[in-house]
Amino acid sequence: MILQSINNIAELCARKGVQNVVISPGSRSAALTLAFARHGSIKTKVIPDERVAGFVGMGMAQYSGQTVALVCTSGSAAYNLAPAVVEAFFQEIPLLVLTADRPKEWIHQQDGQTIYQNELYGKHVKKSFELPADYAHPDTNWYIERVLNEAINLSQTYPKGPVHVNVPIREPFYPTANEKITYDRNVRLVERLATQPTLSPETWHRLQEEFENTSRVLIAVGQLPPQSALWKVLKEFSEEMGVPVLGDIISNIPADDAFVRHHDVCLRPKNHEQLADLQPDLLITVGDSFISKNLKLFLRKFAPARHWHIKPTEQLIDTFQTLSLQVPVEPVYFFQKLLEDIDYQQFVHQDDDSEERTQYREKWLQADRNAQRKLAQFFRQETRWNEFTLVDSLMRSLPENSVLHLANSMPVRYANLVGTSTQVEVFANRGTSGIDGCTSTAVGSAMMTDKLVFLLTGDVSFFYDRNALWHPHLPENLRIVLFNNNGGNIFRLIDGPSAQPELEQYFETRHHTSARNAAEDAGVTYFALDNNTNNHQDMMAAVLTGTVREDAFESIWKQFLVQNGKAKLLEIFTDPVMNGNVFEAYRKMS
């Protein structure tokens, strides 16, 4: 069979654990599509819009940690995968990107759907490969198998990430009517063993000495997937060593009073004396990006003398402009080993010098408690209909062990200020922090779990990605909470654009679109909520004098959570001016 090597790509993927494939229809990619579609061990999803397909696949890989393959046809289709590929690269999410192509000799010959696809994604993939267009010679088949083994292995090698394989295919690329696709069960598999970097005894002695000679140590955790083992050791380390540990909501920090979770509130710039009192001498960071601008400003102004970053990577990332030492090991290993070594030394010498550190930790925990109390008081007193207080209500209503996706712009910022009161898994596209693909990513995540998957999103992000609902695979466990303020309300809430006379036309981009028709077209159960509606059949809650009536909220929220075979969308309408006024009141809060 002419295309046997293409069929064997599917066999290799299945045998190496790439068992979920997202396909966008096309002709040039037909051989790849059929090879995956007819393979008994491959699960396929067909998503017509390549940009959506990329983010759906990324959401699947983000949740599972397993490599997901993307398949598309040639030309601009491959370029439409780029936003998801870029996000996956900076979030270190494993993707195998298979782009069908015409043979090289037909590029720039005015033949349809032909562009320069080799190394299309530039530096935003871990590596690019291109397969040969002719499969007659045995060395070609050996090369294709070698490339696919390397590509899949590389996607899973730390740091994980997307790998691109461009696949030129000559005609004919459809099998004949009676032709049966077969798979070579003897494809060669090349396994790559995982390694665990460690530190020498001399290095541990140095780190231990530096730590023990420092009384003000702060641990800050950026974006991470759920890691219960890490948080278990961090809690033990924090309590035994007297070290405060803080994390943004996307760090998946547990709802535990042992950790600082409201630093975005207590680190507001107006609290100058408190900020100076919280300045660390040693900062230890873990994870990736941080949402909190207040944390960034605090650590740049009240800079630590030393800053260790714990991550096995070659990239030198200095977000706070304070980095002094890279420690290229896994965080769990690092904190377990450091804790054991210090515990042993204290046992041998009968010495515990953590009192000053404990006092420093208590200052952070007290600041966090004060922030929680002030925030709760603000929400109790704020009776106006607005997004901020509604987000607080919704975050407190999330069921235990559910999954929460936070769209970029204001939703992720609101959620980071409020935090969660229940244990949920939190995801957000903070690799590039764009609004594109937030809904599609949540859809992909929901495909990989039976848990309820919530997406908290804004209107611009949702409508920009409305094709996320345009396919037949919407999971019934998907719950979309859409805040519609008829524009990009974030520009009214941040300094700069809010003071410009062009605010509404050029920044907020006002519109009058509702998600009702999009939901109905997709077969999604639709709810609507505003402060003027009392129709309980089409409302999540009734509103009296500008506040949510709790009994109605709880009743309809339960309906929103029920799994009855359909995804659900709740659209909450708010006024952008009121949202701005309420958020400004929060910022002026004493």
Automatic annotation (TrEMBL):
Assembly and oligomerization: Homodimer.
Matching Pfam families: TPP_enzyme_M_2, TPP_enzyme_N
UniProt catalytic activity: isochorismate + 2-oxoglutarate + H(+) = 5-enolpyruvoyl-6-hydroxy-2-succinyl-cyclohex-3-ene-1-carboxylate + CO2
The protein's name in its UniProt record: 2-succinyl-5-enolpyruvyl-6-hydroxy-3-cyclohexene-1-carboxylate synthase
InterPro entries per UniProt: DHS-like_NAD/FAD-binding_dom, MenaQ_synth_MenD, MenD_middle, THDP-binding, Thiamin_PyroP_enz_TPP-bd_dom
Family: Belongs to the TPP enzyme family. MenD subfamily.
Organism annotation: Runella defluvii
GO molecular function: 2-succinyl-5-enolpyruvyl-6-hydroxy-3-cyclohexene-1-carboxylic-acid synthase activity; magnesium ion binding; manganese ion binding; thiamine pyrophosphate binding
Pathway: Quinol/quinone metabolism; 1,4-dihydroxy-2-naphthoate biosynthesis; 1,4-dihydroxy-2-naphthoate from chorismate: step 2/7; Quinol/quinone metabolism; menaquinone biosynthesis
GO BP term, example: menaquinone biosynthetic process
EC assignment: 2.2.1.9
Domain Menaquinone biosynthesis protein MenD middle, first and last residues per copy: 213-405
Cofactor: record remark: Binds 1 thiamine pyrophosphate per subunit.
Requisite cofactors: thiamine diphosphate; Mg(2+); Mn(2+)
Domain Thiamine pyrophosphate enzyme N-terminal TPP-binding: 9-114
Gene that this sequence comes from: menD
UniProtKB keywords: Magnesium, Manganese, Menaquinone biosynthesis, Metal-binding, Thiamine pyrophosphate, Transferase
Source organism, top-level taxon: Bacteria
HAMAP family linked: MenD (MF_01659)
Chain's role: Catalyzes the thiamine diphosphate-dependent decarboxylation of 2-oxoglutarate and the subsequent addition of the resulting succinic semialdehyde-thiamine pyrophosphate anion to isochorismate to yield 2-succinyl-5-enolpyruvyl-6-hydroxy-3-cyclohexene-1-carboxylate (SEPHCHC).
